[in-house]
Amino acid sequence: MNGWRLTGLLSLLLLAMTAYLLADEPDVEGLRTVIRATARTSLILFAMAFAASALVELAPGAVTRWHRRNRRYIGVSFAFSHAIHLAALVALAQIDPELFWTLTNPTTLVLAGTAYLLLAAMTATSFDRTAAWLGARTWRLLHLVGGWYIWISFAVAIGKRLSQGPVYWALMALLLGVAIVRLVAMSRRSRRARAVAA
Ligand code: HEM
Fold it and tell me: pTM higher than 0.90 for the full model?
């Protein structure tokens, strides 16, 4: 499974999960379950897309090359998962505004809203034509800044919940793991570039 078919399959699975959770609990609690579940699927898909190039640098092989080839399609699946997170949040804000404002605040809205703007820009430039229109340098800058901003957004959201149980520690370990993999690959690349220049 490769390319847009992979995005299609992952999106269908995400829709099926959402439908199942809402059918099981067709109320505000069901929406909250969808918000939490999609935050977690988003985190896993984001971590996969974020680490793909670094993993092939550190451990080249058939699996990491498949992963790297499909980075864009996994990234778009992350955007789809996070669009469901947003849709469920909007539904919650409509149905129970009081509960919505006890779960969030204007500062989070602005900071997390910025993550959504960056995610939208990164998704819109994930197609050959739009990427070419933006140019390689600007594309790299947008995806570098956007990727780390989203990483920080996840780290803050998970960090706030560490006292709520081991699942949050596991999610934080995954986030720290992909950051370390990226930084090690980056330092290896720059050492190689310096050696070539010398
Ligand atoms: C305007 C934008 C956003 C709002 C208003 C928002 C709001 C919320 C709320 C209310 C919850 C808790 C749901 C509950 O306990 O019932 C939640 C969970 C979460 N959100 Fe968002 N969110 C937004 C964007 C984001 C972004 C951009 C990220 C990360 C990039 C993110 C990551 C998470 C995570 C990791 C959780 C924890 C899920 C869990 O408990 O397992 N959210 N969000």
Answer: yes
